[in-house]
# Entry
Amino acid sequence: MAKTKQEKLDLKAEKLYYKTHKKKQHYTVKDIVFFILNYSFFGIFTLSCIFPFYYLFINTISSNSLVRAGSITFIPKGIHLQNYIAMLGAEEVMTAFGVSISRTIIGTALMVATSALAGYLMTQQDLWHRKFWYRFLVITMYFNAGLVPTYLNLLMLGLTENYLVYILPAIVQPYNIILVKTYIESIPSELEESAFIDGAGHMTIFRKIIWPLSKPILATIAIFGAVGHWNSFMDSIIYMSGTPELQTLQHRLYIYLNQTSSLGAVVSGGVSGSQAAGMMEGVLDSKVIKYTISMVTVIPILMVYPFMQRYFEKGIMLGAVKG
# Structure
């Protein structure tokens, strides 16, 4: 519909008003200096965080002889992927990789489910002795039995040299439960009340209302759990010393970093024929293998984190509003 003459005049007057009243922001010399220092500092800080990963990566894909000579600094030279092929062919590395992947997926999934359900229950006023259970949960964050009693307890339970030692002790995480509880308390209580009026039970409300609305905080604790499981190696060192097939990738990396003399046999064992002969000079170098295995341990978690980032900031902020 065509605009009337009066409407056009009003539009021109409005544009003229905003044009004449729009204030230009003026920066003082102090402001400019602050911006320069601020952006410079955070730019350098960002580069200092990224560069170690970049340096590792370019050294794993560059000529092994140049890496051994220390000639690779900023630009990769003689690019190849033979180091990664050799790592994928090493049986011990792939077994450890499978253990780390499986414990990360299973452990994180169970931890998230348990934290979500426990956090929801802690928000229910009709929970029997709710305050006692909540305080009991918080106390466990400050007191623990210590390494030796914990080891003896797991030994008596038959969890040492057992894959379940990676999963069961990490299912209940008090800090994550508190985050979920706080987040759920920010959800309007009218949603639960209306569901109760319609005849829904606690599990139905949790499954159809609380769980879908809690995705940001669940994604946040999932990141915490996944990173913790993936990077953990002390439990593998303590509880899996006699079971190499159940050792994690980080434990295997720890062993390789301390026993570099055995790396050549491990890597070359997964490569055969002319391929092994062509890679013998570089792949068996301990520095190259350390770099390659380090990248293998870092790449999976770096690939997952960007997809969870959009949930992470929202979840951690909303879960920290109330206590």
Summary: The chain has a mean pLDDT of 79. The two ends are 55 Å apart (CA to CA).
